[in-house]
Amino acid sequence: MTATRAPRGLVLGTVLTAMFMAILDVFIVNVANPAIQRDLHAPASAIQWIVAGYVLAYAVMLITGGRIGDAIGRRRAFRAGMGLFTLASAACSAAPTSATLIAARVVQGLGAALMQPQVLSIIQVEFSPQERPRAFALLGSVIGVASVAGQIVGGALIALAGWRAVFAINVPIGVVTIVLAGRVLPESKAAEARRLDVVGVALGTLALLLVVAPVVEGREAGWPLWVPVAIAAALPVGALFLRHERRLSARGAAPLVDLSLFAVRPFVTGIGIVLAFWGAVPVYFVGLAQYLQRGEGLSPVLSGVVFTPLAAAFFATSLAAPRIAPRVGGPQRVMTLGALVTALGAFATSGALVLNQSDAHLPTVPLVLGLALMGAGQGLLMPGAIAFVLRDVPVASAGSASGLLATTQQTAAVLGIALGGTLFFGLAGDPPTPGGFSDALAALGLWTAGGALIAAGLTLWRPSAIRQVHANSHALTPSGR
After folding, report:
1. Residue 48 — pLDDT band, cuts 50, 70, 90?
2. What angle do CA 13, 33, 152 make, to 5 degrees?
3. Counting CB atoms within 10 angstroms of each CB, which of 63, 177, 223, 227 has the fewest?
């Protein structure tokens, strides 16, 4: 049987397995971090880098990964990315120090960035227009499952075999996926593959590092002079990046970022929503795992169980959103409602922690209710936000827009982990105390609520531009290019 004759279900299952692994590894490490910190005697900044290093590499290489697949063949790029991801996972599981683990996580992120864009391209090429809506719906479900299930899966793996298992589990799955991909995935290339914007990648990465590294390292270093100097240097580097991208556009070349997209107001507004929301929410789960395990002494399994109401609420509201829309005034109101419910949940968790300061016991019921509200809000907002970003983008710019969307999501998460994580570990104390962790998570809840409220305001920026968002959610999808 040739790859082109493989059953559609087998083709889809192969690429969705890869997508699940890539997204899962953004979140699964949250619940493992306290155990990693104890075992490797890692400082708080290292814990931030273990998360941010993966996401940063993932973010800056996504668009380039898509172009590599267009040039050398998507199946070949998919297998290469999965191979790099699998080898890096093995290195993570065997890491003897936190520095080694961070380096392996960066390589793991690079592998994910090469692999992930091929998933979307293969679906677009291999499936007919009639088949794509179902395929992309399944893809969205897989991304959602991986995002909210990471902490639960991680807790179970740590209980069974320790923190190294959260990385080691990728190895057999990765090997099977690589072999299967060679047998069932079709090969395809772009008719005219775009050249790689190596200078753009270098300048964009440097600008991000000049912000992220000082914020992550500054607190433990005592906020020396190099911290504000490095952050200030990010501005001219960012200006050079923009100048380079404009010059490429003027020459008719292929810049990393298509700046003409920023003339589309819904695109700009949607990118703002993504920056605010993704910069506020992922870091909360980093802090929550630290609070539950190191502050309250919960096991990784019980820590994962605390996330279950959030996951259940996320699934329920994401499925119900299309039916809710007509009752609340349309998809725009669903997005606004989702952001407000997320903010309410974050405020509720912070309030529960503040009111519980005199009690040595975990405020289980109010905390779980707050997390359920946060999950419900995310389920309402995320599908609409992604669709809104791409709503009015010209078809010819769909690849650039969807690649920039995926990059923006991960970049926002990196910045949120750097800034919010520094706030959290600073308030937790040195050495951290249970009361310090409680105060830190309460403050992080306000951070998350603030980002969600900004996102809510942006959903109202241009009401006429948000029409039939959920109905059009499959018209354009992230292609990583």
Report:
1. confident
2. 45
3. 223
